[in-house]
Amino acid sequence: MKINKMMLGILAGTSLFIGFVIISVAVGAIFPSMHKLTAPLICRGEVQVESIQYYPSSGGVGWKNHVYCIQQGDQKEITFPAIGVTGLVYSAITFVVLLFLGRKTVVLPDNFGELATDLKPKKAGMFGSEKKKDNSALERLSELKKMRDENLISQVEYERKKAEIMEEL
Length: 169
Hints:
By secondary structure, the chain is an alpha+beta fold. It has 2 domains: 2-45 and 78-108, no CATH class; 123-168, no CATH class. Helix content is 50%, strand content 16%. It is built from 6 helices and 5 strands; from the N terminus they run E-H-H-E-E-E-H-H-E-H-H. A 3-stranded antiparallel β-sheet has the order 2-3-4, with helices on one face. A hairpin with a 2-residue loop joins strand 3 (62-71) and strand 4 (74-77). Helix 1 (5-30) packs across helix 3 (79-101).
């Protein structure tokens, strides 16, 4: 089993974008309490989320969200680490989901790379006009007759190909 590294990289990049930008930052700005789920990974004490509404001079309404770790009466702001850990966790979850959904694009067949070897141009002869035949005309005619006997090709196709082989002699 071969792994498509390019597709794996695309899935990883997409997962990081979705986990950090979309889920951790955007959704976390709307629902800041979601960081409470992952904050215990960086805080052994109590986790507290505070949302402060403010009114900028340009008009409108703004919100400031803070995540605090409270240990033994000491309050420490862990907003950015909490966003980072949340982003990593959701990126990992997203990566696993995308990997499962795109598993057929990540795993390549064992003979990948060998399938197109017959498409590579064969080297021409000294003057470029000669064609090298691997099989003799007799072998090719024999194989052609066998194909006709097994109804793999029609009588018309058989006659046409037979004439081509005979012309090459």
